[in-house]
Automatic annotation (TrEMBL), chains A, B, C, D:
It comes from the Bacteria. One of its GO terms (molecular function) is dGTPase activity. It comes from Hymenobacter telluris. One of its GO terms (biological process) is dGTP catabolic process. PANTHER family: DEOXYNUCLEOSIDE TRIPHOSPHATE TRIPHOSPHOHYDROLASE, DEOXYNUCLEOSIDE TRIPHOSPHATE TRIPHOSPHOHYDROLASE SAMHD1. Transmembrane segments: none annotated. This is HD domain-containing protein. Residues 50-175 form the HD/PDEase domain.
Length: 409, 409, 409, 409
């Protein structure tokens, strides 16, 4: 069979799957599961076009990796066919450990379990199935391969993951200002001492990338309505978990029920294959079908939250730079208790306070974006001349939010 | 509250919701349900970006309607604010009666129930809720309003529904040749004797629209792999229905179970509110979560089909212009019976033969696309000069297919 | 020096110049001249964005050639580096013999001189300069190379020239329906018996390409206002030529003056290097600067036409399927004579009658578009099943026009 | 005649000319002249697609103005039809006083003459022709109208001029990161105390706009190769001027010759109609046709520079943050003198040193970009919270360059 398949990507046009191994990985049920996990979870409530999946993102990141590798080879960087395939496999599988709704459940039923660790664990399982064909991909993913630029292409402050998700998320949300300028950035990539750097003339493109990324954070990922919806689904899952563990009947698919009923740890995942098997059957479908069932659940908190999110009847959300006053929060809870006829404890479940924050560039850590000056020096882009404001991009911006039912207004 | 909301549409940019009534309709749970029904059902197995929903399509069609109305008004066609809002409400709600997976279930569990009739029925329910605010929208939808061009904008061979779905489907699949050229076509619209016509200079754009539409049919909607996947899901639902009605336990959400267990007719829908209530809780989520459960069902046919579609392990499909020979079909069934250890009757469930067909333009019916010649005559575009091949577009193309498990090859 | 240059093309993104020879050809003054020749001549009067040049088109066609060659190589067609470079050089230079305003002057001062012959002649001159490096490119251009598919990629009914100009012209005019779907068509190319064919599944894309091309003809290239402007500039050049040859003083650049004063033949070009030298200094600049001077010329016909075209005060144009009646034409001339105070002979210069025609596909000639059926046969696309209307696309559509000053209305 | 014309803009799609006055202004020969003045002058040597004209830009800015006015009206700002038309006329004509090559000649033959003053002067002439129909447009253009937001829409740090040119220049160069996000910015406009402000949630869009604009400056407008070409054309015009004024024969069109021979001042323009008449006949055509003639001029400096720019044989250019050392400059001149056999004085003409600089946002002047906070305060965006780096955008970046013939390397 011809495995050199081509598929249509509205973002990049025709995309080719370059090798048989990559084709077989895509065909695997672990990877096909990503078709059922949306990249942006609840964002669709604000941006109705943003329904794209982890599956599509992974394919796109693989495509950008192939462009990056071609650029590097054209510039004389020696890259073997095996290294190239491994780098593409690593990026293809980098998100394979994501649970339903991408991030939301990490803060509820998968508390304490890191999706990157699960990705790694699943890659090892696949490696066993494919007789070690993923050895090098795993090294690259972990950052233990002796040529660090491969890992940086997979995971760094300017990796193919970010370039694809910014490209794709801005495309599907329609927020065109969020486009990162991936084409130009990739053309500017090069390697010095086995590390990834960009040609100096890329500085404006890097700044534009960082600013676009920040815009995407505040306009999309941390959009106030999106934040409200995400907090609601987190609260739904937490409530379902509490009720289940307290012995109440909470209908759910077998896979979801398992994780509602039992707290699992990272170690559990890695030692108990039954857990992994359940995990690999879990996707957005389980969450939404459960929420639909829970809209009829006798528990008032669970049914109110479930019905509300189905009808996009979202919590009112307010943002401010200071934390919300404790008295103010108590007042809100009292209003909820009264309006909904709930106990204080239950009413508190319908008020959510928290914090969102983002910095556009982490200039001080290990993983900086480096440029190669015309004189041959490698410097952190924040130190490169001409751009007084890249440093400023390093400052963290933080906001406090509070959400609660509109009915109390 | 400000109900003049704006949302981002990757296809059209910023789109405004023009009136409070339209805003309230969009907020209604009947309409929010469309968020959970994909426009193109199984097409995502071939075009991974094609995940857009009926919700988004309905908003887009409403937007094109507003552009069409503005063009007509600029050309001196008198249109009242009430008529304009009604036309937009009619197109907004035209698909509200769609069931899960858009069309596939019409050929299984909703056999004999017409989605347009359900749309009409739901519009009447909404009309009651909104105290008659939809009276005129319903007239327009049904084609009983005395100014037929409004109905033609909602439903005809060149309506805002088609222009939006071709625009949207070509955008999200990445099949750019499928773009219908909606902007230009809309600018060419005018009204003669209360009927919709296009200026004569639009003939090339009309031809291009018809050819693009045909391309979308064969490249997307009737793509062989999409056809294979659709036939599989139809077979899955039929099998689940048979098993349920035969008394076997077939897990499903309450809403889906209801329709698996009981054949409903158009009349049932219109007389029994409980049926409608169930229907309005049914969406793609119910189907996919059931399929996931059925992958473990004891029935071999059901579990094989369910697991296969989840893993995108699709039937091999062949197409030809002649029907497939009966002996050939029997041979296939025998191979399946042997390979899977099934009875003949069960094996026959894993072989599907059928027919797909399409004509680009129905030139002979009542509902033609008409142009206004420079001399003031209104003629069917197929009769307009200069385009020897529009007539040829009227010919129906038909293909026969057969699908079966790849394992028997 | 690094000659692996990259440039930005709004149509294709980043485009790489693949070899040093190609880079050096682009740098040559013969090729740089194409920067001063607009691809679409007078079309800018209707589509103000359509200012792109032969220079840009040639680079774009070279880019599509590189994509086509890569596709063929991926499908196992053996193509040497030398063949690949030659094919790219051939397409890069295919338009190098174009005179100012692309086509208009071919019907006036270059009457009887074929631009393709001049391209060939210039390629031979360049070949001498580059020590025979263009030997193979010239064979491919002429169609004498023993592997005809290379010539077909340069010049046939589905060549890289057409794909680029349709892409580019639709982009810069904003007529999006004119996009030919080049990406998909190129992916479908293959070679059978050294001839270019397309995979059978390309039939819908081919039809779409032919229909888009026809749309571009009638909407852009033969647009009535464009036709009017082109006829005016042709008449201007003819008048200037007559006056010059009759001994009147008609200011012009030395290069333009030469061709106004003296009729040259194909043979002259090929035997007299001085003529070629003059030709290679001629571009749109010469025409427009002369027209500006001629707006003050004492000859009434010349100054009226020149001032009019500068101010976009264009002739009224009418189109019909029948030729315009001789009496009607005489009547127009009389009105012009009266209105402008001209003799009949001069007035006749301000009335232009003619004919435009186009057929979307020449199905009967030698150069057909062929597809490879699944059964391995190569057939003319017009014979391929499923598309009743491709044959109809072969019919020629013809229109008669008449243009004259608006002042007589 | 129907003057409600529509034209195709590749950047915005279909654009409507809203009133008869605007249509008549566009038809005027003063405005048609802008068809022959490229927006970006020499930029085409780096970005071959960047051939768009002042004509197209002015139409685009008028279109954005109509979008901005519609947004403001939708938000309840009272705008009369007369004000709306005047604002559109003002932006349509804002560049009508531009000379050939947009900016380059301002630094040579139009030294000391301000193009905005000429625009104003031409607007007054048009106003006389149109019987005072431009009274209000002129007030708005000058900033004397009592509702300052109209002037701010025409000319400020976030005006429709900038939004269009950034949109258009990024489109035609292919530098997609330069897109300013005009749609969203316009939707965020509002008016407080008759001044233009943006809603607070626009802060990320404003930052993105400023960063995109800076990127366009360094990547396009001040691109080193563009700078080199611009300096060459300036030097060409200066040399031609010197030679002409020294009595040498320097062929040129009558209009260009006039300005080469005679220094004109602002006052001359405003008092001598003959000067204005000559100016309104001057465009890019005059410059390029003269440069073509000058390639054969006996003056070595003039012919070398002219032939070089025609063949895109551009000066080598170096940039640095410090000024270039005087001794280094003298050394360069000596090398030129030797290599070209020129006197020192003449050789110095082939060496150009200078300075380019840009700041992304002028935060301290009168004309700030202001946002309206949720609490109803109007503040400079640089003072708005959340964006530590907008202040940094105010810093001016400056670079020194030196250019000279590649032959001396």
């Amino acid at each position: 069979m011809n495995k050199k398949k081509i598929f249509n990507d509205p973002v990049y046009g025709f995309v080719t799957i370059p090798t048989e191994l990559l084709f077989d990985l895509i065909e695997h049920s672990y990877f096909q599961r990503l078709r059922r996990i949306q990249q942006l979870g609840l964002t669709m409530f604000v941006y109705p076009g943003a329904l794209h999946t982890r599956f599509h993102h992974a394919l796109g990141a693989m495509h950008l990796m192939s462009l990056a590798l071609r650029t590097l080879k054209d510039k004389g960087v020696a890259i073997t066919a095996r290294e190239g395939e491994a780098a593409q496999a690593a990026i293809l599988l980098h998100d394979i450990g994501h649970g339903p709704l991408s991030h939301a459940l990490e803060r509820s039923i998968f508390h304490g379990v890191d999706h990157e660790q699960i990705s790694l664990h699943l890659m090892r399982k696949l490696n066993a199935e494919f007789d070690g064909a993923l050895d090098l991909a795993i090294e690259i993913f972990q950052g233990t391969y002796h040529r660090p630029f491969f890992h940086q292409l997979v995971s760094s402050q300017l990796d193919m993951d970010r370039l694809d998700y910014l490209n794709r998320d801005s495309f599907y949300t329609g927020v065109q200002e969020g486009r990162p300028g991936a084409d130009r950035l990739i053309k500017m990539l090069t390697v010095v001492d086995e590390k990834l750097v960009l040609e100096e003339k890329a500085v404006y493109s890097i700044e534009n990338f960082l600013v676009s990324r920040r815009l995407m954070y505040w306009q999309v990922y941390l959009h106030k309505t999106v934040t409200s919806a995400e907090q609601m689904i987190i609260r739904i899952m937490q409530r379902a978990q509490e009720l289940t563990r307290a012995g109440h009947k909470v209908p759910a698919s077998p896979a979801l029920h398992f994780f509602l009923a039992k707290a699992v740890t990272q170690v559990d995942f890695e030692t108990d294959d039954a857990i992994l098997r359940r995990f690999t059957r879990l996707d957005d479908t389980d969450v939404w079908s459960a929420v639909k069932l829970w809209a009829d659940h006798p528990d008032k908190v669970l049914n109110y939250l479930s019905q509300s999110i189905l009808d996009r009847h979202l919590f009112k959300i307010s943002l401010q730079t200071e934390p919300f006053d404790a008295d103010f929060q108590i007042g809100i809870v009292e209003l909820i208790a009264e309006r909904f006829g709930l106990t204080h404890t239950d009413a508190a479940q319908l008020m959510i306070a928290g914090r969102i924050s983002n910095n556009a560039y982490d200039a001080d850590g290990q993983d900086t974006i480096d440029v190669l000056t015309k004189r041959g020096r490698v410097v952190n882009v924040a130190e490169a001349s001409d751009l007084p404001n890249i440093k400023a991009l390093g400052q963290r911006v933080e906001k406090h939010y509070i959400c609660y039912p509109k009915e109390i207004l």
